[in-house]
Design brief:
By secondary structure, the chain is mainly beta. Helices cover 7% and strands 39% of the residues. It is built from three helices and 30 strands.
Length: 486
């Protein structure tokens, strides 16, 4: 969202006098809908045990449309077998259309998906030790025949667990775990023509170290980022980063993302998810076993990945020895804000465990901490999840859980829930008051961002902050008129 600085007159002194102080940890303004099942299979069929999306990228959100992809093994629901499926919602995730088979090959596993600003859907998946690519240009109704992107046909080694990134220049980048080296490393491949052709495979991770769980991201300036867990020793698995400045041809920069505990003891940094912001901002979230259970850690860089801040623990479990936070964190960036979702036991601040579920939270712009969490769903047995935001700041979280088979955990199904925000409540106190109007004025005329996500201030959903938004908030606050958009 671009913030348009207006030249209209405003009494800056009065605005600053009334601006107030932002809350240290404001409440979370998102409320989530009941979970909806996305797969068409009944409870007694289907399993997502073959499902794994490196970096947790299997959902996207544009306008009112939600896109979800997953892998499923069907016993009697057509098409039977192991396949990659796609489903789309045009009402912000309230309902989903028919499941569409994505893989043109005989089977498909572990898909990764990205959707560009033009609505093209890109998918990478694994089959029989190779990595395949396909895409849809008609909104997911059909997918092109899959292309193999590994550059040695019949290579007698295994490639698996792809992750994908796209930018706004029609470039596609795919990374995967590759066992052509010993120990295994992370390889990448690039397409500069929207996936029509792919170039030679390039190794991104360091040789000599066992590499696995990873993620990839790309910007529009030719920078490609790959992060991975690197087995330095059995007790030290740091999170490493490589950056390419030439669109994936070479990876020159190497740095470490995760930090060691204060006692320099063991650290296991696993299942990373990365997101790119603006002006060199990049952040990573991961599962970190520096305590007796896995916790969720976050670190960010402001210099294009050259250095990272000390990691901060961002889950809300008051006792790190108690309850593992798992499911793989999913991290995205939107308009200055990092949004995060992860599975495990949900904890509300100051309370004991409420339930197992999906935790959703965000870090406001210009802040060093995340807001209080909300439970996106009281799901049990969450093993994979992915979060996405649309242009208006509305969110959608998809995940797999075993609610239909809690005792044997042989069948997992995919579910989702949408998160809405209340327009105008810029100080997150649950009310529309003059304090919100002051924050709106500061945002429009002084470019001072509020503690709430910027989209809450965008009353007419035109992706700009102008005097029109001030007028809408004034009318909503004092005349109780509804905003023209959600």
């Amino acid at each position: 969202m671009s913030i348009k600085k207006s030249t209209a007159a405003v009494t800056v002194g009065v605005v600053l006098l009334l601006s107030g102080v932002a809350l240290a940890q404001p409440p979370n303004p998102y409320t989530f809908s009941p979970a909806v099942q996305i797969t068409e299979v009944p409870p007694e069929d289907g399993t997502s045990t073959f499902f794994f999306s490196s970096g947790q990228h299997f959902t996207a959100f544009r306008g009112d449309t939600v896109y979800v992809i997953w892998a499923e093994s069907r016993s009697f629901t057509p098409p039977t077998g192991n396949h990659v499926f796609f489903a789309k919602s045009t009402d912000k995730g309230k309902t989903f259309g028919a499941n569409v088979r994505v893989n043109s090959t005989a089977a498909g596993f572990n898909p990764s998906m990205r959707v560009d600003t033009g609505g093209i859907i890109y998918v990478a998946y694994e089959r029989q030790g190779n990595i395949f690519f396909t895409k849809s240009t008609d909104g997911g109704n059909t997918f092109i025949p899959a292309l193999q992107v590994v550059d040695s046909v019949g290579l007698p080694y295994t490639q698996e667990l792809p992750s994908m990134a796209v930018n706004n220049k029609g470039q596609v980048f795919i990374a995967w775990v590759d066992k052509r080296t010993n120990p295994q490393t992370i390889f990448t491949v690039a397409s500069y023509d929207s996936g029509k052709t792919f170039g030679s495979n390039r190794r991104a991770s360091d040789s000599g170290f066992y590499a696995y769980s990873f993620d990839i991201a790309a910007d529009d300036s030719g920078r490609i980022y790959v992060v991975w867990s690197e087995a330095v020793t059995q007790l030290n698995l740091p999170l490493r980063l490589a950056r390419s400045d030439d669109s994936g041809e070479t990876f020159s920069l190497r740095t470490t993302v995760s930090d060691l505990p204060l006692d320099s003891g063991q650290v296991f940094a696993l299942e990373p998810s990365i997101a790119l912001g603006e002006k060199g901002s990049i952040a990573a979230a991961w599962e970190d076993k520096r305590f007796s259970q896995y916790t969720i850690h976050f670190s960010n860089s402001q210099d294009y990945g050259q250095t990272f801040s000390p990691s901060a623990r961002v889950d809300d479990d008051p006792d790190p020895a108690c309850c593992p936070q798992t499911g793989g964190p999913s991290l995205v960036w939107r308009n200055g804000t990092f949004f995060l979702a992860f599975g495990g036991v949900f904890f509300a601040p100051g309370d004991s465990a409420i339930s197992s579920g999906v935790t959703f939270k965000y870090r406001p712009a210009d802040s060093d901490s995340f807001v209080a969490p909300v439970n996106a769903s009281a799901a049990h047995g969450v093993v994979a999840l992915s979060v996405a935001l649309n242009e208006r700041g509305e969110s959608f979280v998809a995940w797999t859980d075993n609610r239909h088979d809690p005792f044997f955990s042989e069948r997992y199904h995919i579910f989702g829930a949408s998160g809405q925000i209340r327009k105008g409540d810029l100080n997150l106190d649950g009310l529309l008051t003059v304090a919100d109007v002051v924050l709106e004025l500061n945002a429009v005329f002084l470019e001072q961002l509020p503690p709430a996500p910027v989209e809450i201030a965008d009353g007419n959903c035109d992706l700009k902050l102008t005097a029109a938004d001030v007028v809408l908030l004034l009318r909503a606050t004092f005349l109780e008129e509804p905003f023209p958009c959600s």
